[in-house]
Write a structure and sequence with these properties.
The protein is an alpha/beta fold and 312 residues long. It folds into 2 domains: 114 residues, NAD(P)-binding Rossmann-like Domain (Rossmann fold), CATH 3.40.50.720; 181 residues, Rossmann fold. 32% of the residues lie in helices and 14% in strands. It contains 11 helices and 11 strands. The longest helix is centred in the C-terminal third of the chain and has 18 residues.
Length: 312
């Protein structure tokens, strides 16, 4: 028997599908989690807070495979897991459809001024003109991040007749290379961030990058808050050196009450809800995990595997 630690929240979906060779250990609290973690060879340690997950990984000295619904696991002790030889599967792709849809929603909402339309309805005011007149068709998008989310966003935006230019290391198929996009920032109407959280991407959009964008450019961030220098972004929005920022992510989260981003007319904050705007997240994750259990038993690679050295 292989001992495995799981959150009790997924028990109704997972327990009936577990094979006989898996001995489940369920936890609901942080205290219970730390009791079962040291015995687990397989662990699905997801919790709402990061610190208990870090503590569980540190306590799980027998751990061979850790699974997570989260795509971004940059907060975990990667060096320790590498030292112990732990295989990690993450949630890459689980939320890709809904986040790609969210990107399109944010862009259309801004282009058409839909936030003002909703406010007018709340006031029971019949508008005589549209508060937003921008069309996506014909506009040019710089897409930073061509993983599952970026790939789906690209096809959806191209359906609106947008020109989408991704950034790829190879520079293939009309893409820009990582050392080329900064010099071309002034060409784009929209800049979308869908990159993984790594040392390389942290702060990749700063004062210089914001200054290089068009005054009519819109920044869309569905990656991580710290991919953007938030103070520089606030300054750019206040001086209107860019048109707007559509932010599903911020630093920190939750964004503190009174932070200037809340009150800026050219900032939209959607509280990291993009991946949660669906009903299938847990079911997709359980389906993938059960398939991976079969692969694990047969000695085949589980997927998608996270490269702990790279951080994604």
């Amino acid at each position: 028997m292989t001992k495995a630690a799981f959150s009790g929240l997924i028990r109704p979906m997972l327990e009936p599908r577990l094979p006989e060779w898996v001995e489940p250990m369920w936890f609901m609290t942080k205290e219970d989690a730390l009791k079962v973690a040291p015995e687990a060879e397989i662990g699905w340690f997801d919790m709402n807070e990061k610190e208990p997950m870090i503590a569980m990984v540190k306590a799980a000295e027998k751990l061979k495979w850790m699974n997570s619904i989260y795509a971004g696991l940059d907060f975990l002790p990667h060096d320790l897991m590498i030292e112990r030889g732990v295989t990690v599967t993450n949630g890459v792709g689980i939320n890709a459809i809904t986040i790609a849809e969210y990107i399109v929603m944010l862009m259309l909402s801004h282009a058409k001024g839909y936030r003002e339309v909703v406010r007018a309805q709340d006031r029971q005011e019949w508008l005589l003109d549209s508060p937003g007149k921008r069309e996506l068709s014909g506009e040019k998008v710089l897409l930073l991040g061509m993983g599952a989310i970026g790939s789906l966003a690209k096809t959806r935006l191209e359906a609106f007749d947008m020109e989408v230019v991704p950034v790829r290391r190879s520079g293939a198929d009309g893409a820009l290379k990582p050392d080329e996009w900064r010099a071309r920032l002034g060409e784009f109407d929209w800049v979308i961030l869908a990159v993984p959280a790594t040392d390389e991407t942290r702060g990749m959009i700063g004062a210089d990058e914001l200054a290089a964008m068009k005054e009519t450019a819109v920044l869309v961030n569905v990656a991580r808050g710290d991919v953007v220098d938030q103070e520089a972004l606030v300054a750019a929005l206040e001086t209107k050196s860019i048109e707007a920022a559509l932010l599903d992510v911020t630093t920190p989260e939750p964004l503190p009450e009174g932070h200037p981003l809340w009150s800026l007319d050219n900032a939209q904050i959607t509280m990291h809800l993009s991946g949660r705007a669906q009903t299938k997240m847990f079911q997709r994750s359980v389906d993938r995990f059960v398939e991976n259990l079969d692969r694990w038993k047969r000695g085949e690679p589980v997927e998608p595997q996270m490269d702990l050295a790279l951080g994604y």
